[in-house]
């Protein structure tokens, strides 16, 4: 976790040897000050959020776009005992409270479904998926797909282009098309909204898209941040 409460302030660690307690589980946290990565806090007895993953500059950069009070918010499901930290939670307690999950690494469809089931309880949910080529060529595949349109359409005032995912496997794009949350891609600092199956069908004249095809709409970083903040 990047942030914790220490001496009444929610912040990153700033020095080796700092200690504090986790507000969610009460466990001991110690500071980690790596030479070439993001300063963060580590649970001495293991993170109370089993979904926690290593985070880097991309995660930190996006979290810093939101007020410190919206970053890394612990949520608890009393019925199941599940405890997880939302990367960002805006508008807590309002009808449009929004969880933003930042996804830099690969995630299975089963894991995506579990996280959506948890975070969509009483919240809107946005995914921001970082497209890059660190492990696979997802970023390159996405770039090669752009502008090679099979069709254009306007849905609810937003312009969508329908394209084929430029890869021999459609697993990645199909997995995210099926999401019940709102999915956005961050590719080279540009934001793309991925139409879900319902919106994509509307953009395609009422017919489901063929496997491997997807519909996307471009928006600015500022528009995306405003959408996360929207409480009405």
Structure report:
The strands form three sheets. A nine-stranded mixed sheet has the order 6-7-8-9-12-13-14-11-10, with helices on both faces. A three-stranded antiparallel sheet has the order 3-4-5, with no helix packed on it. The chain has a two-stranded antiparallel ribbon with strand order 1-2. Helices cover 21% and strands 34% of the residues. The chain is built from six helices and 14 strands. It is an alpha+beta fold.
Helix content: 10-25%
N to C succession of SSEs: EEEEEHEEEHEHEEHEEHEH
Low-pLDDT parts are: none
Task: Let me know the number of strands.
Answer: 14
State the end-to-end CA separation.
30 Å
Largest sheet: 9 strands, mixed
**DSSP summary: helix tally:** 6
Rg from alpha-carbon coordinates: 19 Å
Outline, from the CA principal axes? elongated
Strand ordering within the main sheet: 6-7-8-9-12-13-14-11-10
β-strand percent reads: 25-35%
Which class of secondary structure composition applies to the elements?
A: alpha+beta
Structure summarized in a few sentences:
21% of the residues lie in helices and 34% in strands. The chain is an alpha+beta fold.
Question: What distinguishing features does this structure have?
Answer:
single chain; about 230 residues; nine-stranded mixed β-sheet; three-stranded antiparallel β-sheet; elongated
């Amino acid at each position: 976790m990047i942030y914790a409460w220490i001496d009444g302030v929610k912040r990153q660690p700033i020095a080796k040897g700092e200690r504090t307690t986790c507000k969610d589980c009460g466990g001991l946290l110690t500071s980690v000050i790596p030479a070439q990565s993001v300063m963060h806090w580590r649970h001495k007895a293991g993170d109370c959020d089993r979904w926690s993953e290593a985070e880097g500059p991309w995660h930190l950069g996006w979290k810093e776009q939101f007020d410190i009070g919206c970053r890394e918010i612990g949520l608890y499901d009393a019925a199941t005992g599940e405890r997880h930290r939302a990367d960002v939670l805006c508008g807590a307690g309002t009808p449009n409270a929004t969880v933003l999950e930042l996804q830099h690494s690969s995630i299975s469809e089963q894991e995506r479904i579990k996280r959506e089931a948890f975070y969509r309880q009483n919240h809107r949910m946005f995914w921001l998926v970082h497209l890059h080529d660190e492990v696979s060529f997802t970023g390159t595949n996405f770039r090669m797909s752009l502008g090679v349109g099979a069709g254009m359409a306007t849905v609810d005032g937003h312009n969508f282009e329908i394209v084929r995912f430029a890869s021999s496997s459609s697993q990645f794009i199909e997995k995210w098309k099926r999401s019940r949350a709102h999915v956005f891609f961050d590719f080279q600092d540009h934001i793309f909204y991925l139409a879900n199956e319902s919106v994509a069908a509307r953009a395609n004249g009422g017919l489901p898209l063929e496997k491997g095809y997807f519909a996307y709409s471009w928006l600015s970083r500022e528009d995306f941040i405003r959408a996360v903040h929207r409480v009405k």
